[in-house]
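Fold this: SGNH/GDSL hydrolase family protein
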Amino acid sequence: MRLRYLFFAFVFVSLFMHSTWSYLIPYCETTSQYWFLANNREWKTKTKILILGDSQIVSGLRPETIAEIEQVRVDEVLYLPKPSQQPEGIYSDTLLALQRLPNLRKVYVNLSPLNTSKNSITDAHKQAYVSFGPFQTIDFRDPLLRKVYYSSVTDLIWKMVIQTFPYFGLSSNLNRIFYDRSVQSDLNKRQLEWENIQRSMEKESGAWIWKSIDSDPTITKDEKFQNLDTKILAGKRDVSIELWTQSIQTWKQKNWEVVILRIPFSPQMEMDLKEKHANLVSEIFLDKIQKESNFDQVKIFDFKESFVNEYQYFADLTHLNRKGRDVFANLLKEKLLNHTHTSTKSM
């Protein structure tokens, strides 16, 4: 009798959590909100172009831009970037694309020191995946993904617990509401960000100027950032390089064309990266990929020096604002179209 009571209690609590947790998401921080809403993106078999990456893509590249460049309909472009995305997430999406996208022909992705090094974003990705990512057997079956996501039995058990009782995935987000005044004062802004992300998911597949609320945030040349220190980005995370290599090999084996973008950071951050040689790992890796690949199949475009004095194009240290996104779109079109014309003439 007692076991039956416990069983029904667990079922009731699980059902209650699943039916109510969506009402709590607007009070979570921005990355969690975005990951939650990104689960509703639709994988369409008619997809021809796949866009992967992190919040630099979210803020800097619209699916409409790629549709125009590739001369396809917007609904043939699958837009899957997420904030705090790492190569493990990109590789996981690649394996799903093998199963779900029979008409895929091209992949766009961004690569930078943020996803070749071990840093706070690496940990944020793991937390977002555990709390809001779907439980996919492919992440457990693949040796590389299992190494990252389920390195111990505890990781697997915790993921299953959160899948059953999703409130546990919100604990790190919501606990601070009760004691941190800065979070309490930020709740109205979080709800507005939630509304804006929802709107962007419905209208632009999630393309959204990072943390913008009906305005275009802009930094200035004299603005100081106390947390700017890119020294940690100079290191190499070996498993990230393995995952990038595996993703690129998979794309090449499927004969998908690949466009790898190094989207610019703000002038302040690019300067700090240069001074601390934090671009070195990603540059060496990209150079290796280019030497091992046919340029007609894998194209690498490095824009890190394109906006070195253009402070007005950035919303913060790492993200383009609306004005910057528009200028970057024109720059990308020019680069890709010039390459297309050059390739056609040489044939």
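The longest strand covers residues 257-262. DSSP finds 16 helices and five strands in the chain.
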